[in-house]
Write a structure and sequence with these properties.
Largest sheet: 3 strands, antiparallel
Subcellular location: Cytoplasm; Late endosome membrane
Keywords: Cytoplasm, Endosome, Membrane, Protein transport, SH3-binding, Transport
Structural class: alpha+beta
Order of helices and strands: HEEEEEEEEEEEEEHHHHH
Organism: Nezara viridula (Southern green stink bug)
Number of helices: 6
Family: Belongs to the MVB12 family.
Helix content: 10-25%
Membrane topology: Peripheral membrane protein
């Protein structure tokens, strides 16, 4: 029955999305449910198990050729273990689309999405086999999930048209998005270099290559007799002198006040009088050196009054 349906509705359009559902009666919009196996026309459940209380658990594969990310197609699929990391560039289907439950048991499908104009191949169909372990003609074997064999069909002609013989661009977009006319190149008569044809009347290509500013004036070659003239012409502009910075200047971000700003440093009038008469000031008293213990003992304060007030 499934073979008759496939033969009746041939479709080589690439798949754009793959998902898994739990309830076969809730088909997602734009998806087709793979509910039957290709070889035996039997139930294509990928879980094949029940819950602890005896309830049935099922997982069904869904395919779409219209849903998914714009301009991306399924380039390849693979079967890996439930806890294995997918190959580089491949994506997983961790949850069911309808109930957001765990999608796989023991083994799972991963698939590779590629931009349509960069894809070298495309997966157009996925079938499931319940008894046969060999892929049908035109299909490739991906592996098995809980005893169900997964096969997929791949095409390499993506229908870009017979006029496009060049490979798709690596960047995926045009390097000349504004459509600026390019010069036509014809073979040179001597066969060494190609001859570029004259620019178009619109002048767009010429304006594209024309510099936006004039070239700088070349320096004047100086000679011993014209040294002073050369120096005047090519001398750089004078740099204003830097302001003198006092040695006591502060470079802190916030201004620091030391408490001595604006106070002149002068002698006491009595000392000035003694100094003017030439008299002796007298012996300078010797400051006794005190240790840390002497200072603690002399200026000790226990803050008893402050503690009592609190």
């Amino acid at each position: 029955m499934m073979q008759q349906i496939i033969k009746t509705f041939p479709d080589d359009k690439p798949l754009t999305s793959i998902s898994v559902i739990e309830d076969i009666s809730k088909r997602p919009q734009g998806f087709i449910i793979v509910s039957k196996t290709f070889d035996q026309d039997s139930d294509a459940d990928l879980w094949k198990g029940s819950t602890f209380f005896g309830g049935r658990v099922s997982r069904y594969l869904c395919l779409s050729k219209t849903e998914g990310i714009d301009n991306y197609i399924v380039e390849d699929i693979a079967i890996i273990g439930e806890k294995d990391m997918p190959p580089d560039g491949y994506g997983l289907i961790p949850k069911t689309m309808d109930t957001d439950a765990k999608a796989w048991k023991k083994r799972q499908i991963c698939y590779k999405l590629t931009r349509r104009n960069l894809a070298l191949s495309a997966v157009t169909d996925i079938i499931l086999l319940s008894k046969s372990k060999k892929a049908p003609e035109g299909f490739s074997l991906a592996g098995d999930i809980n005893g169900v064999v997964v096969c997929f069909k791949t095409i390499h002609d993506l229908g870009l048209g017979p006029h496009n013989n060049n490979p798709p661009p690596v960047l995926g977009y045009s390097l000349n998005p504004k459509g600026i006319p390019q010069p036509t190149i014809s073979p040179s008569p001597n066969g060494l270099y190609p001859a570029v044809a004259s620019p178009t009347s619109s002048g767009d290509y010429v304006n594209l290559l024309r510099p936006k500013r004039p070239a700088p004036t070349p320096p004047i070659q100086s000679s011993p007799g014209l040294l002073s003239t050369s120096l005047v012409v090519n001398s750089p502009p004078e740099i204003p002198p830097k302001p003198q910075v006092p040695s006591s200047a502060s470079y802190a971000t916030l201004k620091v006040h030391e408490g001595l700003e604006g106070i002149p440093f002068v002698l006491h009038p009595t000392l000035e009088l003694i100094a003017s008469k030439g008299a002796s000031i007298g012996p300078i008293p010797v400051i006794k050196r005190k240790t840390m213990e002497d200072l603690d003992r002399e200026y000790a304060y226990d803050f008893r009054l402050e503690r009592q007030s609190t």
